[in-house]
Amino acid sequence: MQVNVSDRVEALRTQGVIDFFRDRFQETVKNLMEVQKYTGQPLAEWYLSQGYYYSGQPKEAEAMLRELSGTTYAGTATRSKASLATLLAKGGRKQEARQQLNEALHSLLLDHHASYSIGSAFAQLGDKDQAVVWLTKSVETGFPCYPWYQKDPLLDPLRDFKPFQQLVSQLEQQYNKAVARYTR
């Protein structure tokens, strides 16, 4: 932000995402709410919804995800439907969760974040095999974030499931190799 004072949006969005993966969810919400002041585009709203959920504001997260599910931005809509399915399943609203999940599965754009959320939705619905299939797709398409897979409470239903343990073990090995390679 000091180098390019004219572009606060990208700096705040990036800081909000970094805060999210550092478990600093209140800061995530603060920074990404500020991004909303500067732009009307869905640059950070999906991450903001996640910040709301993980900071203990599930109603705000659900409301935002419902709104984002109808956006014309295919990636945001798909991510939002999949994330909403996860939260609904976590809250015991399984029929509605399955409806949202089905819509996400039939979306045009399934990126790594959508695949991750589809996996977590399946985990919350008790379908461990499908959860691991989609989490593996998430890894293969760009989200091999070992620390997140290890700590995300939405994946807790999978902790004792051998295929999930194997996936996390593989991610840990990749992570450790990367740390060794890029750490001085």
Give a description of the structure.
With 184 residues, the protein is mainly alpha-helical. The model has no long low-confidence stretch (mean pLDDT 93). It is globular, with a radius of gyration of 16 Å. Helix content is 72%, strand content 0%.
Helical amount: over 70%
How many beta strands in the DSSP annotation? 0
Class from helix and strand fractions: mainly alpha
The radius of gyration over CA amounts to 16 Å
Number of helices: 10
- The proportion of strand residues reads under 5%
Largest sheet: none
**Mean pLDDT rating:** 93
Summary keywords:
globular; 184 residues
In short:
The chain is mainly alpha-helical.
Lay out the secondary structure.
Layout: H1 8-21, H2 25-38, H3 45-54, H4 58-68, H5 74-90, H6 94-105, H7 112-125, H8 128-140, H9 146-151, H10 162-182
